[in-house]
DNA sequence: TACAGGGTCATGTCGGTTCT
DNA sequence: AGAACCGACATGACCCTGTA
């Protein structure tokens, strides 16, 4: 429990926006020093060489490298020879709650792709660029879909081990989410949750929402209803027993469940079991 | 077991203050 | 300047009851 669950939350609450997408050969003058961008950059390098600095670290990405230059971090880039980069590039924002995804996660700036992964990424970049140029009325939807696939490729190539949750905020949120999971069968108050972090309840709610995009009680209720779904499908428990296992009053549980899934608890069980047959 | 209406009180928000 | 706290007030989560 912890990192994986938090990552799933971040990904399912990710707000994406693609501002630019293109494929270019960098001019010899390609250079910008010590700037802090408001958007993320993603490069897929086909050929050439150059130098990039992100947060004081120096990199020299080359062919078949995927590069992520996160928003809100001091960075520089420059050419280093006549063999300038030929690359696909995207400018995008990726936000969870009020935070940029890459403020929440510490991931490698440069990732060398296998031949297969490179071809896959190249196709996605070509698709993204085409959609961006078309500017059709459905483009925003298709751009986001293509961008999500690129991010999925990036994250699955680096793997869980190489993703670090940044800062003490992630530790604090892990403590709270673990506490919620341990007490899923109980009614937990905001006061109790806030006490785990030694914060004032009002401040805790603001803090939680800022990082998670929803209030602590909303988050915990969703967690309970997800758990209830599993109980309904895997067990033979009565509806009122399922409600008990997630620490909810039976009547209130039915109402919440319907709001959350569109099905009543018994309807959900019946329809999903029928599908499984 | 589902659904609806109504009442209560915990939760969430906002604006300001204090602390480090 | 940013983190944390506090009080007032609006909102919504939750419970209870009745009906089908």
Roughly what fraction of the amino acids lie in strands? 15-25%
Radius of gyration: 23 Å
Helical segment count = 11
| CATH T-level topology of the largest domain | Jelly Rolls
Superfamily at the CATH H level of the largest domain?
Regulatory protein AraC
On the 0 to 100 scale, the average pLDDT is 83
CATH architecture of the largest domain: Sandwich
Q: Give helix % range.
A: 40-55%
| CATH C-level of the largest domain | Mainly Beta
Kindly report how far apart the N and C termini lie: 32 Å
According to DSSP, the number of beta strands is 12
Anisotropy-based shape:
elongated
Question: What does the largest sheet look like?
Answer: 6 strands, antiparallel
Oligomer: single chain
The residue ranges in which pLDDT falls below 50 over 5 or more consecutive positions are none
Could you spell the SSE succession in H and E letters?
A: HEEEEEEEEEHEEHHEHHHHHHH
Helix-and-strand structural type: alpha+beta
Number of domains: 2
Explained architecture:
There is one protein chain. This protein has 277 residues and is α+β, with helices and mostly antiparallel strands. It folds into 2 domains: 152 residues, Regulatory protein AraC (Jelly Rolls, Sandwich); 109 residues, Orthogonal Bundle (Arc Repressor Mutant, subunit A). It contains 11 helices and 12 strands. Strands 1, 3, 6, 8, 9 and 11 form a 6-stranded antiparallel sheet that branches. Strands 2-7-4-5 form a 4-stranded antiparallel sheet, with no helix packed on it. The protein has a two-stranded antiparallel ribbon with strand order 10-12. Strand 8 and strand 9 form a beta hairpin. Helix 3 runs antiparallel to helix 4 and helix 6 crosses helix 7.
């Amino acid at each position: 429990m912890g990192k994986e669950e938090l990552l799933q939350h971040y990904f399912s609450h990710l707000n994406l926006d693609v501002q630019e997408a293109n494929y270019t050969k960098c001019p010899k003058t390609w250079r910008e020093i010590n700037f802090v961008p408001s958007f993320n950059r993603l490069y897929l390098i086909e050929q050439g060489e150059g130098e990039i600095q992100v947060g004081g670290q120096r990199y020299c990405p080359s062919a078949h490298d995927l590069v992520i230059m996160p928003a809100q971090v001091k960075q520089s880039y420059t050419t280093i020879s006549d063999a300038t980069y030929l690359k696909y590039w995207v400018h995008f924002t990726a936000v969870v709650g009020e935070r940029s995804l890459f403020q929440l996660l510490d991931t490698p700036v440069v990732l060398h792709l296998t031949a297969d992964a490179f071809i896959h990424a190249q196709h996605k970049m070509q698709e993204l660029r085409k959609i961006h140029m078309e500017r059709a009325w459905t483009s925003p939807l298709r751009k986001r879909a293509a961008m999500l696939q690129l991010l999925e490729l990036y994250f699955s190539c680096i793997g869980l081990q190489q993703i670090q949750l940044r800062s003490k905020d992630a530790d604090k949120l892990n403590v709270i989410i673990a506490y919620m999971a341990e007490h899923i069968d109980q009614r937990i108050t905001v006061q109790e949750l806030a006490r785990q972090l030694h914060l004032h309840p009002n401040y805790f709610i603001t803090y939680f929402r800022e990082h998670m995009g929803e209030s602590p009680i909303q988050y915990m209720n969703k967690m309970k209803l997800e758990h209830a779904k599993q109980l309904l499908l895997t067990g033979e428990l009565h509806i009122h027993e399922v409600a008990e296992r997630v620490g909810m009053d039976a009547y209130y549980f039915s109402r919440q469940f319907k709001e959350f899934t569109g099905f009543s608890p018994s309807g959900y069980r019946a329809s999903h079991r029928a599908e499984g047959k």
